[in-house]
Design brief:
By secondary structure, the protein is an all-alpha fold. Helices cover 76% and strands 0% of the residues. Helix 4 (59-65) crosses helix 10 (196-205), helix 6 packs across helix 11 (211-230) and helix 15 (276-287) packs antiparallel against helix 19 (319-325).
């Protein structure tokens, strides 16, 4: 085991980008320590904070009430940002090293992870400052053990989710149902699907039940160990990583044969689904689909704010445009010479990317229908902003993504990964959001709010009508700068 650790250090130390990596890691370590210190301070001073806010609820009951939401958030953070060390084993597969040793190393290395410090930073100060004075030392320590065990369970469940379960649609359906049913139960029926807080109370009143999360943790560790052990071959790791994308894009083969533009769209979809960085963008976009639910559940004032509704709607219907479109050309790192030296007109390539962005808006528009619950005006705004995203924002972000695009290594994780980020990424969101809000403000001030919403849709329609001129303009820019783009986007 110590030799594997030594090899890992030497691999990092001898890396050509060691100086750059060590600087980034030191910066991230300092930032992480600041975050942990803030979590510790907030947790340790929960009683004083609640008193200052005038909250009369028992702090222990309040914490237990929000346990489920905390662990859902922790799982989401782990899924998006936490990496699973699998590819590090490749140099050892041809050596006479036992597979069990490599598998144990992988699991132990995964535990040594900064995200596993979040739960202790929150729950240990809470135990000392809030639970021990309220329920006593013994019950508090049992409660602390329960919460830390659940956090470790999420750690190993995240490994299985990212490497084994994420390709199964039923898993995501179950997650969505749990969130929806739990939210509806809390809002309307005084019912909680997973009463995690009540379970915590039952366990610290009956300590023998602490064996349940211990058994669950043991099962997840064993299952993770077996998964790594059985798939400790390059071809198996490749299949686990790639097959979900191949299964989906394989169903598009008929569509791929219907014209050059559809062929280019399918190729781009394959690129998205085959690579870790681009898949992460899709996952992030999927998570933000619940953003309007969070915002408009805050109260009537938020629902009645047209500016806020426009902001949320632009973000919702255009989330793929923002997440994927800002790196539209960087996704084709090391492939620009393949596209830009072909005899196919550049307008075909531009139109294929444009259509892909449009299809994403159509999908999010359909997914926005349940938000009709929040009122007819919100649905009007959703429709108007969807048209604006199709006619204006999709073209705008395609053009802005040509401002000094930078290469991206698609197989790297998106966690704290700033590859491809340039000046354009820091300003691209401003015109996307400010544009429709400004259109609404001008026409609403002259006439009324409904005219302002209609104006947003009309501006989008005007952009849609003149899309051919836009295609020609972008194609001309690509033709002028093709050699520079090939040079800039080649690693």
């Amino acid at each position: 085991m110590k030799w594997i650790l030594k090899h890992q250090w030497l691999n990092f130390r001898r890396s050509p980008s060691f100086e750059k990596d060590i600087g980034i890691k030191i910066f991230l370590a300092i930032l992480g320590l600041l975050v942990l210190m803030n979590l510790i301070v907030v947790s340790a001073n929960l009683n004083e904070t609640l008193t200052a806010l005038g909250v009369d609820s028992d702090p222990t009951q309040l914490v237990n009430q929000f346990l489920l939401y905390y662990f859902i958030s922790e799982l989401a953070i782990r899924y998006i940002m936490q990496t699973v060390p699998v590819l590090d084993i490749e140099p050892y597969l041809h050596l006479p090293i036992k597979k069990k040793l490599i598998t144990r190393f992988l699991l132990i290395k995964s535990i040594i992870n900064p995200y596993n410090l979040i739960a202790p930073a929150i729950f240990i100060p809470l135990t000392i400052s809030t639970f021990i004075p309220a329920i006593g030392m013994e019950k508090s320590l049992i409660w602390l053990a329960f919460t830390l065990l659940i956090s470790l369970c999420l750690h190993f469940f995240n490994i299985l989710l990212k490497k084994k379960l994420e390709s199964k649609n039923i898993v995501w359906v179950i997650f969505a149902l749990i969130i929806v049913v739990n939210y509806a139960g809390n809002q309307y029926f005084n019912f909680t699907l997973i009463p995690l807080g009540n379970w915590a109370i039952v366990i610290y009143n009956s300590p023998i039940l602490l064996s349940i999360p211990i058994i669950l943790l043991g099962y997840l560790i064993y299952t993770s160990f077996q998964f790594f052990y059985q798939n400790l071959y390059l071809e198996d790791l490749f299949d686990a990583k790639m097959m979900s994308g191949e299964k989906i894009t394989g169903k598009l083969s008929n569509w791929e044969n219907k014209g050059i533009i559809n062929t280019l769209i399918v190729q781009e979809l394959k690129l998205i689904l085959r690579h870790k960085r681009s898949r992460s963008s899709i996952m992030m976009a999927g998570i933000f689909l619940f953003y309007p639910l969070f915002i408009f559940s805050m109260g009537k004032e938020t629902q009645q704010s047209s500016a806020m509704a426009i902001f949320v709607s632009i973000f919702f219907t255009g989330i793929f445009i923002i997440q994927y479109g800002q790196f539209l050309w960087s996704w084709n790192t090391n492939q620009m010479d393949f596209f830009l030296t072909k005899i196919n007109p550049y307008t075909h390539w531009v139109e294929s990317r444009y259509r892909l962005l449009i299809y994403s808006v159509l999908i999010t528009s359909v997914l926005s229908l349940p938000y009709f619950y929040f009122g007819y005006e919100l649905m009007m705004i959703m429709g108007a902003t969807a048209i604006y995203n199709v006619g204006i924002n999709s073209m705008l972000i395609m053009r802005m993504s040509l401002w000094g695009p930078k290469p991206i290594e698609l197989d790297k994780s998106s966690m704290m990964n700033y590859q491809g980020v340039g000046a354009a990424q820091f300003v691209v969101g401003i015109p996307l959001i400010v544009g429709p809000v400004a259109v609404y403000a001008i026409f609403a001030s002259i006439w009324n709010g409904q005219i302002g919403i209609l104006a947003i849709a009309l501006v989008g329609l005007i952009g849609l009508i003149f899309r051919k001129a836009f295609f020609n303009s972008i194609a001309k820019k690509l033709k002028q700068d093709k050699y520079k783009l090939i040079y800039d986007l080649t690693i």
